[in-house]
Design goal:
The protein is an alpha/beta fold. The protein is built from 15 helices and 14 strands. Helices cover 37% and strands 15% of the residues. Helix 2 crosses helix 3 and helix 8 packs parallel to helix 14. The termini are far apart.
Length: 406
């Protein structure tokens, strides 16, 4: 039990991506940005969140929400390595501290460890499962390897089939890298074939420190780009190719998060994901020992906000340091960003990707060229959908309009 219970006085919820097993994983994906976190931020002992820390987290996190709904996001590493009883315990604690609030759970997994028992549990407790899969086998197996350096595609696909058998809702998260970026339609068609309705594409942009061999700290312009990082313009072309297929066939049926965020910004509604939002800092990451970091991509010592055994989640998330972290996204825009016609659509994208130093000293987002290519391409279609929404008509009408343009 926490010594001090502090409730969130704001209207908007705070989110914490909890990593109850830290960076421990049953796979060894080449591009994983989290595997070396045990070196950068050593945990206490087993890398498993203790029962006491779990209870404290659940109590504090529920208290931090100013609304009647609480969304728990379980992440890793591979969170299924903790075993099913760990999450049964979490559900019991959520009910104890829930105070009649609606509790929802999202769990991100590579799918390899899914079983009938897991899927029954997820269905019974209404979990939404995020599956990390990078496309068909030749795309997925390129970098998503087992510890024995073997491809993990077949196991992940079997996991998806189990989720479907038990009617567990799932989304897919695809890491776009230097290889699978060459196969946009193959990836998109594959996701449709496996029944994915919600698709998130995450471009990999990582650098290595030449001395330590570890990832370079976020917002540093130092370090060599990893060979699996996606090319900026390649990423823009990847999005455009999928968009052309989607806008002519699948609007309203398939939801690609990037497209949804772009449309939201077109109609002056806050983007659903932080990378395209004006500010950030409302989604923190909690390590297994209770350390809270500003963001999942900023788990470096300089971004540690404290520990839940010493301060509440609310105190840390509303601290001047965390608020400054979030507001710096808009305050540190490059000189080029401030003049860009697409600024309101992009908002500088994620600060971790601002690694290109400009002559005036400001830093530019590595993905800028590709994002401009994408925004320029989709602009007329987004304007059409925005106009339909403004006039209380369905944005799905864009399908007929898009087909007529060819």
């Amino acid at each position: 039990m926490s010594k001090t219970i502090q409730y969130n006085p704001l209207k908007n919820p705070l989110y914490v991506m909890v990593k109850p097993i830290g960076s421990i994983c049953n796979l060894h994906c080449d591009y994983c940005y989290y595997l070396d976190k045990k070196e950068l931020s050593p945990l206490n002992g087993s890398n498993k969140m203790s029962d006491a820390t779990l209870e404290l987290f659940i109590e504090q996190y529920i208290n931090a929400q100013p609304i009647g709904q609480v969304l728990f996001t379980w992440h890793g590493g591979e969170p299924l390595l903790l075993g099913i009883e760990y999450y049964r315990k979490a559900i019991r604690l959520q009910k104890i501290f829930g105070r009649h609030k609606q509790i929802d759970n999202v769990l991100q997994t590579n799918g390899v460890l899914l079983t009938d028992e897991w899927c029954r549990f997820f269905k019974e407790n209404n979990f939404l499962i995020g599956i990390s899969i990078d496309g068909p086998a030749y795309c997925h197996n390129r970098y998503r390897k087992t510890i024995k350096n073997e491809g993990s595609f077949l196991q992940a696909l079997e996991g998806i089939k189990l989720l479907q058998r038990y009617q567990v809702e799932f989304n897919v998260l695809s890491v776009v890298n230097n290889y699978n970026v060459q196969y946009p339609l193959e990836i998109y068609h594959f996701f449709k074939e496996i029944g994915a309705k919600y698709i998130q594409f995450s471009p990999v942009v990582e650098r290595l420190n030449s001395e330590s061999g570890l990832l370079t700290s976020a917002m540093s312009t130092q370090g060599k780009l990893t060979p699996w990082s996606v090319g900026s313009l390649d990423y823009g072309k990847f999005l455009n190719t999928i968009f052309d297929e989607w806008v002519r066939n699948d609007v309203g049926e398939i939801f690609v998060i990037t497209f949804d965020d772009t449309l939201a910004n077109f109609v002056d509604v806050p983007a659903g994901t932080c990378v395209y939002a004006e500010t950030c800092g409302h989604v923190a990451a909690l390590e297994a020992n209770g350390d809270l970091y500003s963001c999942d991509h900023f788990v470096f010592p300089e971004f540690k906000q404290g520990n839940i055994h010493e301060q509440t989640i609310t105190e840390m998330m509303l601290s001047p340091e965390q608020i400054k972290f979030g507001s710096n996204k808009s305050k540190s825009l490059s000189s080029q960003c401030l003049k860009c016609k697409f600024l309101k659509l992009c908002n500088g994208e994620c600060p971790k990707n601002r690694i290109i130093r400009l002559p005036d000293g400001s830093t530019q987002n590595y993905l800028c060229q590709g994002l401009k290519h994408y925004f320029n391409h989709v602009e007329p279609y987004m304007q059409f959908m925005a106009n339909e929404l403004k006039n209380n008509r369905s944005p799905e009408n864009v399908i007929r309009w898009a087909r007529s343009r060819k």
